[in-house]
Amino acid sequence: MNFLFLTLTQNSLHIQEKKQDNQLSEYTIPFSDFKFPKTAEILATQIKEQFPSVTGAVFNDIAPEFYSQHTQIAALNVGIENIIKHFSELLNLPILTVSELDTAKDLAAAFKEKSEYLTWNLDYFGYTPGKEEYSVESLLTIGNGFMGLRGTIPEMTLSKEHYPATYIAGLYNEEKSEVAGQIVENEDFVNTPNNQFIRIKVDGTDEWLTLEKASLHYLHRNLDLKTGLFSSHMILEDSHQHQVKITAQKIVNMAKKNNYSIKYSIKPLNFSKNITVKTTTDGSVYNFNVERYRNLTAKHFHITQLLAEKNNSMIEVQTNQSKINVQQMATITGDFFDADAIKNSIGEERIEQEITFYAEQHKTYTFEKQVQVKASIAEENWQTTLLPAASFDSEFNESKQAWETLWKKSDVQITGDLMSQKLLRIHTYHLLVSASPFNNNDLDVSVTARGLHGEAYRGHIFWDEIFILPFYILHFPETAKQLLMYRYNRLGKAKENACESNYAGAMYPWQSGLDGSEDTQKLHLNPLNGEWGEDHSILQRHVSLAIAYNVWMYWNNSRDDRFIKEYGAEMLVEIANFWRSATTFDDTTNRYYIDKVMGPDEFHEAYPDSPESGLKNNAYTNLMVVWLFEELETILSLLDTQEQAELFNKTGVTSENLKEMVAIRKRLSIEINEDGIIAQYEGYFDLKEIDWGKAKEKYGNIYRMDRILKAEGQSPDDYKVSKQADTLMLFYNLNKEKIDEILEELDYDLPADYLEKNLLYYLNRTSHGSTLSRIVHAQLAEQVAFHDLSWKLYQEALYSDYQDIQGGTTAEGIHTGVMAATIYVTLTTYAGIDIKKNHLTIQPNLPKNWTEMAFNIDHKGIHYNLFITNNTVHVCPSQDTTVIVQNQPHQLRADKVTMINY
Q1: Above 90 in pLDDT, residue 698?
Q2: I need a surface site. Which of 89, 654, 777, 840 has the fewest CB within 10 A?
Q3: How far apart are CA 368 and CA 104, in angstroms?
Q4: Which intervals of the chain form a coiled coil (predicted)?
């Protein structure tokens, strides 16, 4: 095997290509000024061009003189570990240190072991306070579906530099704020008391060791995706030159929804003195994660009780408006003190517990904090008396086993692409943190657009569920059902929302929180000009279609007829009835139309110069309505005569209503031009074109062209510019064959290549202002055999949160929608599985650098283990069944692996 030996000199990167101990070639890349990470990116590009076939590398140690010459960088943030991390990711190769090379008995095995580590671990070296730090914390979040803790170290407090937070699923509160001279009400996802805080002070100083005041010599944070273990290693020095090594470990127990644990170790490096350790239960926290929300009311709870005795403490708070109670109970233990040595202090908003002890140089002292979190929204759990946690190690072992169970069902394994493997595991991990089979099935919650990781979008539930639920449908059907029950439990509120807007049926809100009320803000801040403007996104009524689609997807994949009879059919009927009532017949065109809506695009809210908001005949909305009306017939056929009668009596839907739905689905209007382009909405073709080259040259980042245009005094309503896939979303949801059937039933005749034409037309007019945009376009590009385009967009979507490509949005929480969608597209587009048909259908289409894929899915009550190569499919089902591979049926035996050539 060939590998590279890399040496960074003062002004060049020296490269030796080796095979074992033999040198094959030598190459030097000069540079004048080392800027990190920009110079690393330039160097990596040249390495890939010069050495395309190497399988690993070794990076030599960096001499101290390197930092003396390049004073703009420091070893804290640009040490050898961080340089290796960046080059490894840029080159998509495992890279060893010299010491790892020296101890390796087998070089190939060492590279394999390093690759395995890299795909299961998230490492960050150094510290850059502010938005970049906030993003790191989002990506290092730990959780278990019930609660999430951002990836901060114990010494961090709420500030602009870093932001510890403890989130509980479904915990919302509504407050009033004055905005642009108006009083507005916003429902927010609440940051609850911080029980993670720990800091130390060395005797003879008045300084608590903090990142703000002490000298930070080293900081390494690691998240083990396989086990959910967060670890940090830090060396701090106070102004009296006391150096301390601090190691912290933190887990949220995946097996027990209420428990999280911290293990905190202190090692004096150059002194022996008394040290004081302080841990705080902080009830003074408030919402601060999203910069543009900071002028709004941020304190969402008041303290109802503070208690501390010996090594135990308790805080109980209640949200101000929603009246939800939250309780946190903590116990501290350690190998250097007993309970009587603890000094407890209770203030108005916090509890402080201090221990002073004598610490000897080079000796390690360990402190543990076990925290149990309860919330009254989880009623049964709130009433349960919890057993105290025994120790960090016991909690970790229990949690690790639970994570192992989850990974067995959900891990997607890829051979040949280190970074795609790593990123898919990062995405899977964060979905399981956001909602888990271990802790969500008894909760009345859904997955927020930003997980349990941050406060963007106020922690609300959007149509992102259409991207998120398929992950659970494929791997954890019971959890998918629980997430759907969140919507069913708010069906009554959706009916109220429809009635208030003079519609029938159920109109689900664009933004949903605690009780299913419409929680979309009325004003939106444009950060480019600092101005507040009206927000019309409430008109994205297609959220109801996303819910209907997920109900159908869950039933179609699980065949859970009981769910349909008890809950699903009622939701579908009410949603369909809403769309029936939103439809109007036009005598002039002899077709029906739907107006006063917005599509998924979001940049377009109204027609140019129109005093009213809303658009007419959005193609995505209309064609999904036709799909819903068609599928409703199938769903209703599952019910017997009495069950149908009870359903129609409960919903008020009549046979005349159903007949009208049949008429609508045959005559609903969309606009199509002579080239076969389906207009995003009626009148779209009349809009002006954007000069994209000029916009990119002027602004660079043009993702949010709506904000750019508004800051220039213009309106995106005037232009053919889209935030994300709109019309094209149809092909993400449905097979092209199904859309062809719908268009034929509507009596529209399109050219054979209309999908390719529509993809290119809209791709050239889309700014990708949503991270979801790229993954939808990637799937469509693969459908029409634009393989390179598909791969490019897929990779951009995979990296979108990890590299924070939108310039700071990851700081406000990860994007659960795009994380779930990348996994779904990996399975449906590249592995080629189709779960929408009666039999599992597989048409593999592996990217050129992937040699193998392995994964598990559930389909119609059968569990499948699949292994796919470039010419074979290996399938092991849990029952006798038939699968379709490349359009050919194959009979399978239960628990037997069948190899199918294709």
Answers
A1: no
A2: 654
A3: 36
A4: none
Neighbours of 387 (CB within 10 A): 9
Residue at token pair 């995979």: 798
Give per-residue pLDDT as tens, 536-559: 789 999 999 999 999 999 999 999
pLDDT in tens, 262-310: 999 999 999 999 999 999 999 999 999 999 899 899 999 999 999 999 9
Point out the residues that are catalytic: 602
Residues 668, 678: contact at Cβ < 8 Å?
no
Q: Which among 409, 510, 496, 536 is positioned nearest to 823, based on CA atoms?
A: 409
CA atoms 710, 714, 715, 716: torsion sign: negative
Query: In whole angstroms, what is the distance from residue 760 CA to residue 605 CA?
Result: 23
Domain 131-401 has CATH 3.40.640.10: no
C-alpha span between 626 and 662 (Å, rounded): 9
878 Cβ partners below 8 Å, 6+ apart? Answer: 862, 863, 864, 894, 895
Beta bridge partners of 123: 222
Helix axes 619-636, 569-581, angle to 10 degrees: 140
Alpha-carbon distance 72 to 794, whole Å?
Answer: 35
* Averaged pLDDT, 390-404: 98
- For residue 894, what are the contacts with CB-CB under 8 A and spacing of at least 6? 877, 878, 879, 880
Q: At what angle do helices 816-825 and 787-799 cross, to 10 degrees?
A: 140
Exposed/middle/buried for 92, CB within 10 Å: 0-12, 13-18, 19+? middle
**E strand segments, 162-214:** 166-168, 172-179, 182-189, 194-202
Buried b (16+ CB within 10 A) or exposed e, 276-299: ebbbbbbbebebbbbeebeebbbe
Encoding tokens for residue 531?
């101005």
Instruction: Please give the structure tokens belonging to residue 585.
Output: 């017949």
Q: Is 886 helix (H, G, I), strand (E, B) or coil?
A: coil
Taking alpha carbons only, the member of 377, 337, 354, 341 closest to residue 146 is 377
Spans of all domains in the chain: 2-121, 131-401, 476-767
Size (the chain), residues: 902
H helices of 261-391, in order, are 379-383
371 closest CA partner among 306, 340, 327: 327
Q: Sorting pLDDT into bands at 50, 70 and 90, what band is 707?
A: confident
Per-residue model confidence as pLDDT tens digits over 513-530: 999 999 987 766 666 566
The single-letter DSSP state of residue 510 is S
Those residues with Cβ within 8 angstroms of residue 355's Cβ, 6 or more apart along the chain or in another chain = 276, 277, 334, 336, 337, 341, 342, 343, 367
pLDDT digits (tens, 9 = 90+) for 771-785: 899 999 999 999 999
What single-letter amino acid sits at 332?
I
Positions at the binding site? 463-464, 723-724
DSSP secondary-structure letter at 564? I
Structure token pair of residue 329 = 């109970």
Encoded tokens for 302 = 């008041």
Q: Could you tell me which residues are annotated as the binding site for substrate?
A: 463-464, 723-724
Contact yes or no for 431/407 (Cβ under 8 A): no
From residue 517, alpha-carbon distances to 156, 460, 514 in Å are 36, 11, 8
| Structure tokens, 516 | 């299913």
Q: Do 687 and 674 contact (CB within 8 A), yes or no? A: no
Answer whether CATH 1.50.10.10 is correct for domain 476-767: yes
CATH number of 2-121: 3.30.420.40
Q: Whole-model pTM?
A: 0.97
